[in-house]
What we know:
By secondary structure, the chain is mostly helical. It contains 4 helices and no strands. One of its GO terms (cellular component) is ribosome. Keywords: Ribonucleoprotein, Ribosomal protein.
Amino acid sequence: MAKSLTAQELRTESQEDLVTKLKEAKEELFNLRFQAATGQLDNHNRLRTVKREIARIYTIMREHELGIMPLASAEETKEAAE
């Protein structure tokens, strides 16, 4: 995850894509924490950014669960990609 994800971008993703992005962000956070503990981390702001991305993904997933924002269908996801 090179760049920060916006909530608008995440709202166009399907549930499976959100789960994938969440897993990737958690792995990145683990690696960043490990680098910070060993003194190898160059960009400490990235820790904060990744934590916020994780929270943003959880928020979007919860919105879907509560029905606040409907899930993006496979067709809508393809259209957004084009």
